[in-house]
Design a protein that fits this description.
Nucleoside Triphosphate Pyrophosphohydrolase; 219 residues; alpha+beta; eight-stranded mixed beta sheet; globular
Length: 219
């Protein structure tokens, strides 16, 4: 497991990885009126915003780099997750994918809540699940799916230069991206991270289905 690519400039004080932060995130997520979207022919998927210790007493979330040999979205930044199996709920699928991709058996009690469904241009309806674990040092990448696991300090989500937006010549919705280290992360992952920041960290009811993905991510 590695840290995010470095960038110049001082960081804001870290979010402390402690019970107070878990309660705060839990209260903010519980108080948010989640928007559930109908499938309408989309394939159901789930991703997890997994909160772990950053190693310095601060809090972090897990992002992965997808394996280079994957058929779709190879090498891209991603939250752990994948398609729902038959009969699974989004939370069950999120926990299964955490185990399959990064080797962590996540108990039901680790789940804090969920955020809005996000429909993608590639034909998926993604349900983001928020979870917390004290076992962030136990992660191991499945090389068939994950090239690398990164702990991203939550302070990265509060950067004043992020998120950024671009115009879309084919749609009135702006394209969203967030900056992590020296990297750019695009929707749908960027949309989930932005809503997590606004809702879970700051208690601001914010919708993200009005943000689009870059055209290369539609496939």
């Amino acid at each position: 497991m590695s840290d995010p690519p470095s960038r110049d400039g001082a960081r804001a004080p870290a979010y402390r990885f402690d019970a107070a932060l878990r309660r705060r995130i839990g209260a903010n997520v519980a108080g948010f009126a989640v928007r559930r979207s109908p499938d309408e022919g989309l394939k159901r998927a789930a991703v997890t915003v997994l909160l772990v210790g950053a190693g310095d007493g601060g809090a972090a979330l897990i992002l992965t780099r997808r394996a280079a040999g994957l058929r779709r979205h190879a090498g891209q930044w991603a939250l752990p997750g994948g398609r729902l199996d038959a009969g699974e709920t989004a939370v069950q699928a999120a926990r299964r994918e955490i185990a399959e991709e990064i080797g962590l058996a996540l108990p039901p009690s680790a789940v804090i809540g969920r955020l809005d469904d996000y429909p993608t241009r590639s034909g998926y309806l993604i349900t983001p699940v928020v979870a917390w674990t004290d076992r962030g040092g136990d992660l191991a990448a499945n090389p068939d799916e994950v090239a690398a696991i990164h702990r991203i300090p939550l302070t990265e989500l509060d950067r004043p230069d992020s998120p950024q937006f671009a115009t879309n010549p084919h749609d009135p919705r702006p394209i969203i991206k967030v900056l992590i280290g020296d990297s750019q992360i695009h929707a749908p992952t960027a949309a989930v991270l932005y809503q997590f920041r606004e809702v879970a960290l700051h208690g601001r009811a914010t919708r993200v289905d009005g943000y689009d993905q870059p055209e290369w991510a539609w496939r």
